[in-house]
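Regression test case RT-17, inverse folding.

Input:
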């Protein structure tokens, strides 16, 4: 029997990119998924594709109550929650003085607070159930910053730091906390704020399905094992 069969996950940022690919990959493994995002029309399309194994949740990760909304939707629809994948994220490229106050606030609120709120909602039930998995989708920018992405990198460093601290806080309660830190991924990410559909190298980036398979691999680890940070890049991407 597939060891993920029958388990339940909640994923943020499920309307596109890595979140959408992860929902598909987990359902293919026999899991049930509650998928959250702001774009309800896209969630409905995914629900039509995945059927009863997927419940759409229109939400905004920046709103604390919406973290609870996603977690409760998973438990209401499927009776449990085994896995949380905080994936929603945005990025704006450019020097720190080139970005607007609104763009900086949006990155911090979405990438940092938008990771914290769903985790706070999921942890009490996971502890009561005896364990679970939290798999945070961060970025190599959270391991090694680069020029023209200082605030984005800061938000991703925050995710990596959060995960490391939570590992120490939650491991003995049976909750594994992992970070997946991909390099460039060919998605809608940063389109119009540093990327264009015609930009060179886009076709050589990782696919969202590559990152989704990494999530599956982390979840399939033996219960005696945990992975803290998994950094992954396209074979074409230089260090």
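Golden output:
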């Amino acid at each position: 029997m597939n060891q993920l069969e029958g388990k339940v996950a909640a994923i943020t940022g499920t309307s596109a990119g890595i979140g959408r690919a992860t929902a598909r990959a987990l359902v293919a493994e026999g899991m049930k998924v509650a998928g959250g995002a702001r774009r309800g029309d896209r969630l409905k399309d995914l629900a039509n594709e995945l059927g009863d194994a997927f419940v759409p949740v229109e939400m905004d990760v920046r709103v604390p109550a919406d973290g609870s909304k996603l977690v409760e939707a998973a438990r209401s629809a499927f009776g449990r929650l085994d896995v949380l994948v905080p994936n929603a994220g945005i990025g704006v490229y450019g020097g720190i003085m080139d970005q607007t106050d609104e763009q900086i606030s949006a990155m911090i609120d979405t990438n940092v607070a938008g990771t914290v709120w769903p985790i706070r909602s999921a942890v009490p039930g996971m502890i009561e159930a005896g364990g679970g998995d939290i798999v945070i989708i961060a970025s190599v920018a959270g391991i090694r910053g680069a020029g023209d992405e200082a605030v984005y990198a800061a938000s991703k460093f925050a995710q990596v730091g959060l995960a490391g601290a939570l590992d120490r806080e939650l491991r003995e309660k049976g909750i594994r906390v992992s970070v997946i830190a991909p390099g460039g991924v060919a998605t809608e990410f940063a389109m119009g704020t540093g990327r264009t559909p015609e930009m060179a190298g886009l076709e050589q980036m990782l696919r969202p399905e590559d990152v989704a398979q990494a999530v599956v691999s982390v979840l399939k680890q033996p219960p005696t094992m945990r992975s803290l940070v998994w950094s992954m890049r396209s074979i074409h991407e230089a260090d």
